[in-house]
């Protein structure tokens, strides 16, 4: 289980998250929802130790990671798929995937079989440069790179943003498989409330850097969505 308690987070002197508490239970998908700029990306970055500083408690399976450097958090089993994917265009697909291996505990450096099974196009094109891929394929590559770390917890930042509609469903199906079949705990920053309702067991709604509402997705009413997500 991933748990945050009383977490405040900062970029320099800019105080973005305030007293954030949440729980993603093992094997669950937790949807993180809210308008643009409320702090959803900052929440994922804070879990990875990628903001300037934070206070409060962050725990994975009861063990604190709050004092750890980013690479140690990755080694503790958390993998991060950032918004915008951050693929290295001049690296091959294989090289991009292998970058995820730095966080493996067992030191293995191999393209994970699971990623090859989930993403046949990547499997067939391992020697092509990452930069030639479409947005949807780059998202697949970013997920494959995360899987190379053999994580228990996957942090996904708007994985279907900017992807053509026919590929969106494919990516969504992969996220559900990773959760249901592989058992990964997923924290999913998502603008698509429909997918959040369908895939996630729990939700948090963020407003101005604070958790405004949280609960099981059955309690994610249209009123709450209107109140905290309508623009
Ligand atoms: N590197 C940074 N330095 C200073 N402030 C930042 C930095 N990154 C984000 N912020 C600020 O933190 C706040 C939250 O931004 P964040 O990107 O976390 O929001 P978000 O909910 O993910 O938005 P979006 O849906 O647009 O991605 C915003 O006010 C933003 O301007």
From TrEMBL:
Pfam families: ABC_tran
MF terms (GO), sorted A to Z: ATP binding; ATP hydrolysis activity; branched-chain amino acid transmembrane transporter activity
UniProt keyword annotations, A-Z: Amino-acid transport, ATP-binding, Nucleotide-binding, Transport
Chain coiled-coil ranges: none
Chain ranges of the ABC transporter domain: 2-231
Superkingdom of origin organism: Bacteria
Alphabetical GO biological process terms: L-amino acid transport
Matching SMART domains: AAA
Keyword field contains Oxidoreductase: no
InterPro entries assigned to the protein according to its UniProt record, in alphabetical order: AAA+_ATPase, ABC_transporter-like_ATP-bd, ABC_transptr_urea_ATP-bd_UrtE, BCAA_Transport_ATP-bd_LivF, P-loop_NTPase
Family named by the database record: Belongs to the ABC transporter superfamily.
Name by which UniProt lists this protein: Urea transport system ATP-binding protein
Species name: Amorphus orientalis
Organism lineage string: Bacteria, Pseudomonadati, Pseudomonadota, Alphaproteobacteria, Hyphomicrobiales
């Amino acid at each position: 289980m991933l748990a945050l308690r009383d977490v405040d987070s900062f970029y320099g002197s800019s105080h973005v998250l305030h007293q954030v508490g949440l729980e993603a239970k093992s094997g669950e998908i937790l949807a993180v929802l809210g308008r643009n700029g409320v702090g959803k990306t900052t929440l994922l970055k804070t879990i990875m130790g990628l903001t300037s500083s934070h206070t409060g408690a962050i725990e994975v399976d009861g063990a604190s990671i709050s004092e750890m450097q980013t690479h140690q958090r990755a080694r503790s089993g958390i993998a991060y798929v950032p918004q915008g994917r951050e693929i290295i265009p001049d690296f091959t697909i294989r090289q991009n995937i292998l970058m995820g291996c730095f966080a493996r505990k067992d030191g293995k450096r191999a393209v994970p079989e699971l990623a090859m099974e989930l993403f046949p196009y990547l499997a067939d094109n391992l020697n092509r440069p990452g930069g030639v891929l479409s947005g949807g394929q780059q998202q697949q590559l970013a997920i494959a790179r995360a899987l190379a770390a053999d994580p228990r917890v996957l942090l996904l930042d708007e994985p279907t943003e900017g992807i053509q509609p026919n590929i969106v469903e494919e990516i969504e199906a992969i996220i559900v498989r990773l959760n249901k079949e592989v058992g990964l705990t997923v924290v999913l920053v998502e603008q698509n409330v429909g997918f959040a309702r369908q895939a996630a067991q729990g939700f948090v709604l963020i407003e101005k850097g604070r958790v405004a509402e949280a609960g099981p997705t059955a309690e994610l009413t249209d009123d709450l969505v209107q109140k905290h997500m309508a623009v």
